């Protein structure tokens, strides 16, 4: 795991009078006291506000530009700006224009120091978050929450875990908290500004008025913007120096093995291929990135950046041999093979059995910064990524930035664009042709959208709080529609349940009444705050869904991490998110809009021949794999919840969760996403409490690690 950490403390006098050495701060924040340093850190700059980069950062991923000794900018990650552009951005940030620091292509964290003011800029999606906490008479910040929790010896925030399980897609319930008490999160689209230890959270994105609809780009111009942003995002990755797996990680070739070439021996040892790779699942998002990377000038797969003319991009397709739906799997493989016919692509298929099903090998795996549903599929992703490149492109986030959240139908009604609802509601009716009520579905969806458009933000949160207090979440098939969409019901039920300001998540039905009551109090408190008053319901719900997905992608990066490999998700870059937000809602809500937009993006880049069925969804195949994983891992899961830590914390009843796992493994209609959230949170808790050591060293380092007290049995919420 890689992270950035620094702090700003209260000073007496001017910064030029400081004489302490870099990092010379103890638990009281005064110079001259015993030191505390991050373990394995590289100091980027020292007093008055030191900054470190911690972990296996590559040399080209850490860049520092400086105008004078107290005006400097650090950019960590993959950034497409040149040094002169960084200096221009630093000059703009010195005058308060922070948005300039977020406009470059790529995915990165920017830290600017101007005199006694330090500014840490988060991203728009939440894939590169910023955390902060009060410490040593000032404020410490980092791009990971666990190091800050270690620094202040934080205990577990059980209330936050309850909110994460009860309302995972609702920022109102989660607020700016983390699983660690005292460690706070900077919201996406905001920056943390520190001056002599005092902190301020400020937004850098312009806000639109609810009274007047924002001007929208023509559809063709919006698609051109998405194309340019995606091309620049991919080009930024291709232009970076190539990296090979580091020494000591499967680099020693044991010599000739009968029937195995060098590439096969490397794959058997485990480790990425030198150069750039990409997922190629036959779907629209990964296929678009692979074709863009293969079509751009240069040597996409060159290990050192100057390969021969025969160098090709590595495209990896995952083939699940266990799931029953062979027809869907074969169709996806055919599309992937058709796309891989491009002469600049080198295609490999990674076959997998039960060892790569969801819920496999939960006992192993690293500790992630926070819990997330990706923990249950980490081994599945690692199986695929091990065969990928040292820099590997994935299509994560495309659905969240391009698709229309169902609540956007209410936004169209607020703008008096009723005619644009015709096609999406008709598509929902066609998707549920077997229902006897198919003819009235358009009217039902329209009424739900109109009701949401007429419901205020406060009324929506209070209604959700009332649902949680009612605790009417049976663990059987008769689950209420408000918590249904994750694995239960069809597209119509999911859309109707999503047409609300806030709703309980799929795991809420298994939480105890006390935990749900605590979350309802959080929602009631959020209802009287003005944060949501400046956004429309669809816009706010779509932003919350993107935040949730980006947070889970970050968990996946850490849980499925392959040493010497970097995962790149261009759809979560700031520039791409901004370009996708400019897509008109009337176009976004149309059926098949994502595939149509990406097809136009490829056409603008010169790729016009795509296989039949390109853009088809894979929800059914994913659900089948999850159920197969539940069946294969039924015994370990039952053992995991024999005496769960979640029950000790008062969040769930172990017997009810075991019954749900048994029912889901036997085909009972239950929300699979909710079970994944419960299992992943339990696994994360066990890994957290089993860890040894701390993130800090020095004579003033914390005496114990974060959450040292563990989870006390039955604590009050």
| Strand order in the largest sheet | 3-4-1-10-9-11
How many β-strand stretches?
19
* Shape descriptor: globular
Overall pLDDT: 85
If helices are DSSP runs of H or I spanning 4 or more residues, what is the number of helices? 25
Strand content: 5-15%
Identify low-pLDDT runs: 12-34, 303-310, 474-488, 713-717
- The secondary structure category is alpha+beta
Please give the share of residues in helix: 25-40%
Largest sheet: 6 strands, antiparallel
Q: How far do the termini sit from each other?
A: 31 Å
Radius of gyration: 25 Å
List the helices and strands and how they pair.
Elements: E1 3-9, E2 37-38, E3 41-45, E4 51-54, E5 62-68, E6 71-79, H1 83-94, E7 106-114, E8 117-121, E9 131-135, E10 138-142, H2 145-152, H3 158-166, H4 171-174, E11 184-185, E12 190-195, E13 198-203, H5 219-239, H6 262-269, E14 273-279, H7 284-295, E15 313-320, H8 326-339, E16 345-352, H9 378-385, E17 389-393, H10 398-402, H11 408-414, H12 422-431, H13 441-453, H14 457-470, H15 491-498, H16 513-527, H17 537-559, E18 566-568, H18 574-581, H19 585-588, H20 593-604, H21 619-632, H22 634-640, H23 645-648, H24 654-665, H25 672-690, E19 696-697
Parallel strand pairs: 14-15, 14-17, 15-16, 17-18
Antiparallel strand pairs: 1-4, 1-10, 2-19, 3-4, 5-6, 6-7, 7-8, 8-12, 9-10, 9-11, 12-13
Helix pairs in contact: 3-16, 5-18, 5-20, 7-20, 11-13, 11-17, 12-13, 14-16, 21-24
